[in-house]
Amino acid sequence: MDEKHKLRAHIRQARRDHVAGLAKTTRALVFMRPPGMVAQLALPGSAVGLYHATPDEAPTRGYAKWFFDNGRQIALPWFAQKGAAMQFRLWQDPYADKGLVPGPYGALQPSDDSPEVSPALAFVPLLAFTADGARLGQGGGHYDRWLAANRGTIALGLAWDAQLAENLPVESHDMPLKAIIPPTRAYGDLD
Length: 191
Hints:
Elements: H1 3-20, H2 24-29, H3 36-39, E1 47-49, H4 61-69, E2 73-78, E3 87-90, E4 100-102, E5 108-110, E6 116-117, E7 121-124, E8 128-129, E9 135-136, H5 142-149, E10 154-158, E11 179-181, E12 187-188
Parallel strand pairs: 1-2, 1-7, 7-10, 10-11
Antiparallel strand pairs: 2-3, 3-6, 4-5, 8-9, 11-12
C-alpha cells in the first residue's frame, strides 16, 4: 500500500469520526450559505460548480440553494463513463435530486441531456487540506485535470475543521485551491 493510499484511509476514518461526533443540529446549520466574500466570487448569471456530497463530506446543498436562489446556475461533475474526462453539467433543481442519475463512479450526476457549462467558481471535494491551499483528493485526479484545463476557474474547497493538515504530499499535477472554507474560518486568499 503506497503512502498516499495509507494517508487517505487514515484521513477518511478521522473525517468519519469527526462528523459522527457532531450534533445533528450543528451539521444542519453549517454550510447553509457562502460567506459574503465567497458569494461575491460568482457573478449573477454565472455557473457555480459544486459536488454532490457524501454523508461525511462537507455538505454543499445549502450553498447550491443559496447560489441558485441568488441568480447563479448550479453545475455538478458529469462523466460519460469511467476513465472519461470530467465535465460540469447543469443541475436544474438543487432542492431535489430529481434529474440526477447515478454516474459511473456511483455519485449522483446530471442526466446525459443536461447542458455542459464551464463554472467560473468551482467547489472541489477534498480529504485533507493545508492552510496554503494544498489539497488531498480521492486519488482519481479528475478535478486536477479539469482545473488544469480550465485555469480561469476559481477553485475553492469546503471542509470540516478536522481535515486541516500541517502538510500533505504534493505532486506537480496537483492543483492548489485559492481558499478552503471550513465552519470556523477561511484559509487562503478570498480577495
